[in-house]
Specification:
The structure is a homodimer. By secondary structure, the first copy, chain A, is an alpha/beta fold. In chain A, 25% of the residues lie in helices and 23% in strands. Chain A has helices at residues 7-14, 83-87, 124-127, 153-168, 183-193, 217-230, 322-329, 350-358, 380-387, 398-411, 415-423, 442-445; strands at 23-28, 33-38, 49-54, 59-63, 67-74, 95-100, 107-110, 115-118, 137-142, 174-177, 194-195, 201-204, 236-241, 249-253, 257-259, 268-270, 277-279, 284-286, 301-302, 310-314, 334-339, 363-367, 391-392. In chain A, the strands form 6 sheets. An 8-stranded mixed sheet of chain A has the order 9-6-10-12-13-14-17-18, sandwiched between helices. A 5-stranded antiparallel sheet of chain A has the order 4-3-2-1-5. The first copy, chain A, has a 4-stranded parallel sheet with strand order 20-21-22-23. In chain A, helix 6 (217-230) links the parallel strand 12 and strand 13. Chain A is elongated. Chain A starts with 6 loop residues before the first helix and ends with a helix. The interface between A and B is large, with 76 and 76 residues.
């Protein structure tokens, strides 16, 4: 392995025969000792810092000036030179594919522009987390390389098909590396698309790329592998940081997850129910006991059809009925509304909504509050909407209702069947009316 | 005052000469004593319960069977029969108008259908909170009676004009009773419309109507009056429950508030900054010290023009460029996007966005994460959006960006001026990049 550092950092590392990914110890002038793996530096970074990944999974940058002593503890294991280990694992480890779709978790910072770009050699991700190789026989499946905002239902189906293949051929669980922007949409899509799921399907990502000291990729990926191998839950879920510190992750049910912060590591929240589990380096603690259990044997089937021509509209005061005309004019066949409060839109929209439902276009009502359930029986506007044929879906998130309508209308065009399936809890996306209300998010997470 | 009860409840109340709104004491068979004001019962309710408002503001229903003794402590003050007090207040109390627009706070349950309908005699609201009459000279201004989902910018301007009149003629503060569905939109609109504001403007509402035992109307209205009279903050703000209990409220800056739960009493959260203040029955505790201060004298001006033809679109994977064609076809002149993550939409939308901005239609980018700030410099999609002319607005909420664009385009049609005003912090709607991140909401509220 070469050494990527330059300048004065390179000098002191080279003097000890240290190369990228070696295990080293640094003793600082203030007496602090740090032990960890040397992380490569990009060409345009400064030569004043040495970056290492500590055993707790956290990356630190150590200023060259502050170093009193530096030691090489162990050379990096060169897996590339041990092909025998690759083909015949010494231990019979569970097989876990890592399906790569793109996103920050497989990216690094371009120090010329400060921007984030995809990795050229994605295996580097695994080099940084050697303990994973003792937990699972992880295979790398580069399925696609796109920013998650560019996903469509065609990509969701491709991923579902790959998951089907992997699980039916004996994988203990499947991990999907994914951009965080739309990870919750994909997680919801996989929840619906995978029928008869009997192993964990885990979406994992990073809010900060793995070459940054504050990366969340290491703990997230470690947790994902742990859930895939040891977790009892056979559902589509998201595993990401559960706190701003690098101490634990949450597994959140795919149909309950929503990205609720642009940049924090703990950006994903479980909406309207507690997370499924809390994962630390040592244990998996089940929080929500109501889940689909992992089974030894089974057969999963990936649905390969979704209806793409569905629209999601968040209502606002002043929204005009011409929005609904547009739905028909552009050939859309389904509409999800994120109304205000309990599920309302201005009453001037109601005649148009009635026309849509009469013409066989399902109109589903959710709430832009996100938390809580809709109830169209309390206020007059709600009752008028019900009378106009609007479909109610309890406490389902707007984004999940969109994905579910794509799935349901891929299966049937019969209005009554669509109404029945949308209102029925299929994957945990609708809770019973007596479920505990979880709000604000912080409320339940420390239960 | 008559007695609205019937059956066995009526019998035991009448025997003591008790009528609606009298102060009574009930001793239950289990020894518990309750002291409070007798609340009227609707015609279709059962005759097995007596409902009273306790001194802590909470309503309780007491089963007739459980009562051991009942006493009349004080007859209700019949303000209607003391017109002298109305015209010449004994104490020189600060003048506070209660502008009524509609909503649950001025509604009651129709027990025939279980639905909520507007009050016929809105003064009943005040009858239930006698302590208010000692705090302020509250006048009732029935401006309109609409469900808040039917508000448009025309109503926002009408309210702003009324506030202007009231404040410039000597009111100490203004309270606006409003439906909760779109209260945060109106609060944001008033923030922008009222230039040179020097007194508090407080929106208040209720998640449960005042005749229900679990009503939040009493504490909310009490807190609103307290803020209007004693509070140091001259801004447009929302005052609503701060916890699921009936113990305190938060004052949330109008441009930072969002209704985040369909039914809970503490449904409003302050997004991306702490609430302005916490209000208990005894005190106002300032949390966010950065606010516009109340002044003795001044002149407020209500802007009377907003641009209504603005569209708000929450993006999703699979959204098609035809949405943006629709903007032009239907004559819209501005577009606010709630992108994913740091502020992204599918790259296939970017050519259309470029066309829009080139044609003089401003396109503003916000994030549907709601929490956190947008940053279009991190990923390629963001940089392409910037290049296509998208306007960035930091950590402004999508709904606030919509209202602000309506306001800004009511003032100017010059693209550069629009860009400058949208990106500039006018009323606390954009925070500096180094502001403390508040997330999850529970994090900061107990500081």
């Amino acid at each position: 392995m070469p050494l990527s550092y330059r300048g004065c950092a390179k000098e002191i590392l080279q003097a000890k025969g240290i190369e990228d990914y070696d295990l080293i110890r640094i003793v600082r002038k203030d007496g602090v000792e740090l032990k960890g793996i040397l992380i490569p530096r990009a060409e345009l970074e400064d030569d004043k810092h040495i970056v290492m990944k500590l055993e707790n999974g956290y990356n630190v940058g150590v200023s060259v000036e502050s170093i009193s002593r530096i030691e090489l503890l162990r050379k990096r294991k060169e897996t590339k030179e041990e092909p025998v280990v690759q083909e015949l694992p010494v231990k019979q480890l569970p097989r876990v594919p890592l399906i790569v779709t793109g996103g920050t978790i497989t990216s690094k910072v371009d120090y010329a522009t400060g921007a984030v770009k995809p990795y050229e050699r994605p295996e580097e991700l695994l080099d940084l987390i050697p303990e994973i190789s003792e937990m699972a026989n992880l295979s790398y499946v580069p399925l696609m390389s796109i920013f998650s905002e560019n996903m469509t239902c065609r990509e969701w189906i491709r991923i579902a098909k790959e998951v089907e293949k992997e699980i039916n051929s004996g994988s203990e669980g499947v991990i999907i590396a994914h951009g965080t922007d739309t990870m919750h949409f994909t997680a919801a899509a996989l929840s619906f698309l995978l029928e008869g799921l009997f192993k964990p399907v885990i979406l994992v990502g990073a809010q900060r790329s793995i070459d940054r000291p504050s990366t969340d990729a290491v703990l997230n990926l470690f947790s994902a592998v742990k859930m895939a191998v040891e977790g009892p839950i056979a559902e589509s879920m998201i595993v990401m940081h559960g706190s701003p510190s690098d101490d634990y992750t949450y597994a959140i049910r795919g149909v309950r997850a929503r990205k609720m912060h642009t940049s924090r590591r703990d950006a994903f929240l479980s909406i309207n129910e507690p997370p499924l589990a809390k994962i630390t380096r040592k244990s998996i603690e089940i929080i929500n006991k109501n889940f689909n259990k992992r089974r030894e044997r089974g057969e999963v089937r990936a649905t390969d059809k979704m209806q793409e021509k569905i629209v999601l509209i968040y209502s606002w005061p002043g929204i005009s009925p011409d929005f609904l005309e547009f739905v028909v004019e552009k050939g859309y066949v389904g509409l999800v509304l994120a109304g205000t409060g309990l599920g309302h839109v201005p009453t001037r929209l109601i005649p148009k909504i009635r026309e849509l439902t009469r013409d066989g276009i399902p109109v589903v009502m959710t709430s832009q509050c996100l938390f809580g359930r809709t109830n169209l029986n309390v206020y007059e506007t709600g009752r008028l909407l019900l009378d106009a044929g609007v479909i109610t879906v309890g406490d389902m998130l707007p984004e999940v209702a969109l994905v579910k309508l794509m799935y349901v209308m891929g299966k049937t065009t019969d209005m009554e069947e669509i109404r029945k399936l949308m209102g029925k809890n299929l994957r945990g996306e609708i809770s019973k009316s007596l479920s505990i209300t979880v709000f604000p998010p912080g409320d339940v997470y420390n239960v």
